[in-house]
Design a protein that fits this description.
Length: 231
Amino acid sequence: MNIVSEGKTKKVEDLGTEVMLHFKDDITAGDGAKHDVLQNKGAICSEITARLMKYLNEKGIYTMYLEYLPPNKIRARKLKMIPLEVIVRFKKAGSFVRRYGGNEGEDLPSPLVEFTYKSDTLHDPLMCVEHLEVLGITTKEIAQSIIQQAKEAGNYLKEFFESHSIELWDMKFEFGLDLDGKVCLGDEISPDTMRLRKSGEIFDKDIYRRDLGNPLEKYEVVLKLCQSIDL
């Protein structure tokens, strides 16, 4: 295998004009300060990602997804990733509450998109569009395209989970540019990257962040819902 990069939860294999993402069983929190290995996590998160990206593709959102290869691999478009976490928020939660106050689960008046710079050492600082231009991360035009696509993808995912009686509070996306320079949704969509709630019950990585038990029990519930999307 020609592994060209490895992050906390995935390895990327170069296939020439495409890549293969290998999802690992690792789970982390606190910029990697907390780290464990949970058997079968990679398989669960890769299948959820594959099904949700297939769903978004069908809704007209351009994603990296090409093919799911069980148990834990996705064949994907090769992207030059933009070093940003793009957070779409429907409710106040997590770092938003720590920064601005309010109550967990309180509605925002409209969907909010935040950019944070991907850097564990800098603790993912917030950035505005002008930061992206001044620091040479991306252009204003690409940033605006990302904002639009992130909101559209977020709304489609919110509708999907609402149809299964689960609230989507927020999610983290990552985008890159394909070989033609087109903005494309990449990385992962799973309970690692979303907040999913139902009547106070948690179905996401906050279980791990808060030491509330084995998160994979709830991840498997999310997977069963996502299996309503054909691959």
